[in-house]
Amino acid sequence: MQVTANGVAIEVEERGPVGGEPLLLVMGLGMQLLGWHEGLVDAFVERGFRVVRFDNRDIGLSQSFDAEGVPNLLLGSLRHALGLAVKGPYTLADMADDAVGVLDALGIAQAHVCGASMGGMIAQRMAERAPQRVKSLTLMMTSSGSRLLPGPSLKVRGALIARPPDSADVPGIVEHYVKLYGLIGSPAFPPPIDYLRQRFDQSIRRSYRRAGTARQMVAIAADGDRSSILSRITAPTHVIHGAADVLVPVPAGRDLAARIPGATLDVIEGMGHDLPRELWHRFADAVATIAKRA
Prior knowledge:
8-stranded mixed β-sheet, globular, 41% helix, 16% strand
């Protein structure tokens, strides 16, 4: 279904008992709500959560911002590397307000919030801007954005901003993302290639917005360093990070756990920048545990 959140049309799906504890899932860069695998959602539902997942603005079936044009990613990356201001059509704070707007549209006063990658950055902003709405916080494979933290290698950066094939070439786009996930995924938990192809094919046929991904990337760069807000987060917080993450290296997870008061940390050996099937129940148990602290 589609709701109006923060003045933006946002595609939302709900699963689980209406009377369950609300759990808002916030996905990462360029990823649709499908990025929260059905099996992982099932694991959350099994633990009694009313699971809410949604397409971030500019992605999936949510409102596009194509009228804002396509940003120059190379120029934006250079400005970010030099510590210069980066401007985009919207910010991560705007996207955090979208997430709060989803709760408003569904009549949810408070929710447990779990954000992955860029979704974890949005969740940080959400916990800062609307602390009364965030009952607990789980941050997965994400970062404060501090410039003191190590970043991805040039090879990984290049793969992330590489131009995929033309939008009409669905098999070519699928192979582009299969190759990317082969680079950033979990070395200890590699998914079958056919499974990856099926998932990306499903996602691309549902919606494919390369320009939206670029605008979200600029929003990340423009948001900069969130270190100064982390000490003000009051929600019980759990950080999950892969020891083998080459996109957001593990020091970022350790940094978050050190800066957020009372935060707990789970560093998982062999996990990269994805959500391996083998770890779904571990993730769900972790979210349920931090929810009980709220």
